[in-house]
Design goal:
Length: 348
């Protein structure tokens, strides 16, 4: 068996190289990666390198949305076996800090997360074989494909924001952005019984996908002012919940004008710094929540997929062979309006 990976050598430069076969620790499994999604963060690092992480050294391996099959298990692993197909939760924590002890392991300052430059960096999953802690690998039921399994990770991001928001059946929800995370949030809303959904985006093809996945109303912000249109749709009331998934300073700044008095804004997208009308939030007592990655959501997501309430692979628009990974990244950049979600077929 030969392990091969695509390394990011510098911004805009990927190269296929051999890499060491992973050594399976006692609490780990070794996975033959079959599929791995291309996340927006992967595209960012490909375009710009790691300016926010000046200590990050090149080369490194991107990719943190893998699905695959176990080929080896460590001596302490009892819940998984060779041949099991799994989805991988890419982050794992120290287990002993304040946040881990309170169940908020995703906030652990010592978290290791596949492919994300950080003090505890570990190479990602754009490689043939990967070792990972068994407790962060989840067996896929027979009715869930490995491709669907790879898409559990981005589904978890959108689902976590919805799941912990407090939204209830009958509420009106606005989703800003119909990229992969926005569509994952939309599907999660539908699975939780929320049918009054409004999706806003600039790309008509993405809005068409949102309608396909159950959006009650879509708004093309290139053609229609979303603030005025949502005010009209809700009879001047505003939405009960606003989910910002686009990671845009423009959409983030719009959120106080979309939520009703006493409503809730959930920030999921990575927006960076921007001007925000906090006075409007105070005057209307609008609550703002933030959602960072996820915790304990994979079993929930897998249960909904197994029940047929969500198809996480429905957001996939493009699949590329492993050898064509450079083409995949170019497509994500040059055809952004068409490529909602690209996936790499890693296995031969």
């Amino acid at each position: 068996m030969e392990n091969r990976a695509f390394y990011l050598l510098e911004a805009g430069k990927l190269e296929e190289r051999p890499c060491e076969m992973p050594v399976c620790k006692e609490d780990e499994v070794v996975i033959k990666v079959e599929y791995c999604g291309v996340c927006g963060s992967d595209v960012y690092f490909y375009k710009y390198g790691s300016p926010d992480y000046p200590k990050q050294r090149f080369p490194f391996i991107l990719g943190h949305e893998p699905g695959g099959v176990i080929i080896e298990t460590g001596s302490q692993v009892t819940d998984l076996k060779v041949g099991d197909r799994v989805t991988v939760e890419p982050g794992y924590s120290c287990g002993i800090c304040e946040w881990c002890k309170h169940g908020l392991y995703h906030l652990c300052p010592e978290t290791k997360f596949l492919s994300v430059p950080a003090p505890n960096f570990i190479d990602g999953a754009f490689r043939k074989y990967l070792a990972h802690p068994a407790e962060r690998c989840f067996k896929l039921p027979d009715q869930i494909s490995t491709l669907q399994g790879a898409m559990i990770e981005p589904l978890a991001v959108g689902m976590s924001g919805v799941y912990r928001s407090g939204i209830r059946s009958g509420d009106t929800a606005v989703v800003l952005g119909s990229g992969c995370i926005g569509l994952s949030a939309l599907q999660s809303l539908g699975a939780f019984g929320i049918t009054r959904t409004i999706v806003v985006d600039l790309q008509e093809k993405r809005l068409a996908k949102a309608r396909e996945l159950g959006a009650a109303v879509t708004i093309n912000a290139k053609e229609t002012d979303p603030i005025k249109e949502i005010e009209r749709i809700t009879g001047g009331r505003g939405a009960d919940y606003v989910f910002e998934t686009a990671g845009s300073k423009v959409t983030a700044a719009q959120t106080p004008y979309l939520a009703k008095r006493g409503g809730t804004i959930v920030m999921i997208g990575n927006t960076g710094k921007f001007e925000f009308d906090f006075q409007r939030l105070i005057d209307r007592e609008i609550m703002i929540r933030t959602s960072f990655r996820y915790h304990d959501i994979y079993p929930v997501a897998l249960g909904l997929v197994e029940a047929g309430k969500i198809d996480p692979a429905s957001v996939v628009t493009d699949i590329f062979d492993f050898k064509d990974i450079k083409e995949a990244f170019r497509a994500c950049i040059e055809r952004q309006d068409e490529v909602v979600k690209a996936v790499i077929k890693v296995a031969d």
